[in-house]
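Dear colleague,

Following up on yesterday's call, I've attached the two folding results inline so they're easy to grep. Please treat them as preliminary; we haven't cross-checked anything against experimental data yet. The first protein's sequence and structure tokens come first.
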Amino acid sequence: MSQVHTPQPSTPVTIITGASRGLGLGLAAQLLERGHRVLTLQRTPHTGLAAQAERLGRRLEQWSVDLTEPTQAAARLKAWVQALSRTQVASLHLINNAALLVEPGPLAAADPGAVSAALRTSLEAPLLLTGAFLAASADLTVTRKVLNISSGLGRFAMAGSAVYCAAKAGMDHFSRALALEEAERPHGARIVSLAPGVIDTDMQVQLRGADPARFSSQGRFAGLKAQGQLDSADAAAAKVLACLDAEDFGQKVIADVRDLAGT
């Protein structure tokens, strides 16, 4: 008697950078709950996330990578996506979340090495990883989405944050150009650069703890915390995933989570 092979069900697959804490960790945890296969890229894997995946019976891979040197990570990602079973991918998503913040203050006083590391992690890595993702998945006809986590500071300048502003403005503009490219393809990916709102993360701690003499907006960030205006990482992740799930994802390339209904 011949053996009958039951086809494995297809699964949504999501890749997230910077998932060891904050928003990225919240996104990864909620996607596992939703049944996604998840790949994360960060310096240090999160043991709690691994335990959650085991408890839920979900597929999770966590890569320890240094995104200040993104070329190797992009090559590895390209090979990983190419190796995915084409019959078992229900949809494919890339969330570029990882970012580094240079110590708040004037650019003239910034450490050049820190500036370089921040730009490579926050802008060069998303460009290289997105290029690898798109090249490796070009043959897929399922929905593909690239969600770039941007910031209001990519759209409104702030003294003392020139490097972060530059990285996020670059992310917004490369998203615009990429969306035009993908619109020319038969099954092009859908692209969004999303400002996720103000979130109670380590970055906020750094901003409100900065020296007011070097960073004139320090009081503003301290006030956001004091007035309870910061989302938790989990609450922010739920809002970001509502955007990712939206039927019209990609119609508006430059988006803000605060403009979404119900957020």
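Below is the second protein, in the same order (sequence, then structure):
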Amino acid sequence: MKHLYHLILLTVLFSCSNNKTVPIPKNEERAPTRITKPEFQTILDSADIHGAILIFDSEANEYYSNDFAWSEKGQLPASTFKIPNSIIALETGVVASDSVLFKWDGEKRAFKVWEQDLLFKDAFKYSCVPCFREIARNIGVNRMNEYIAKLDYGNIQVYSTNIDLFWLIGNATITPFQEIDFLKRFYDAKLPITKRTEKLVKKMMILKESPTYKIFGKTGWTMDDNKNNGWFVGFVETKNKVYYFATNVEPNSSFDMDLFPKIRKEVTYQAFQKMNIIDTF
């Protein structure tokens, strides 16, 4: 029996040594490659801002950025949180659909475009802070914390004292890498949410469409502690690929702040062009 056991063991070992397609265990999958793009830095320098543009090619398993250290820094999520906030609102039934109407109370608001009744999809499009503060209060502290944990979004703790402002002021943070991780799980249908919610939120995120690409995204802007910080996150569908992006930037002292609402998108689109992701914008 002992000789038979040794014979069987040798046969198994020989068989395995000739197997040319031994799968790599999941915990040993190749880590994404990081490729520094100096041309991204040139884009930011020309725009008189500083920060990082981070792009992920999931098919090639490659990250591209001008500053990977910045991409690992946590920042307030600002209105990029409207993506998970919308998901949570739909999943909890606080908002029934993208056509729910938010009535303007007639009070003066920070932007003229917010001073009107807005459908939910338009409140998302125009980044209506009063609308989403109302949504957050209706979701409540317990459900908000529960869903943030389920979605594995950033480093955020919600309390009764900050339920309707935590994404704009305070200690909540998310990094550009974490933004992309969340967006990839969202796009790949790996979040614990319904297909209906996924479809509605993706539809609300559409920013640009052309015959060769479609851009989905959300901007964000915080002014906490006298510091302006801006986001633009999302993903680009091309004919045969999906790219994920998270741009986080701050203005230089000489920057014209009237340009800040547009500059976050413009520098990102320029980076897309440098990588031949899009042709024109």
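For the second protein, one point worth flagging: Residues 30-274 form a domain with the Beta-lactamase fold (CATH 3.40.710.10).

Best wishes,
A.L.
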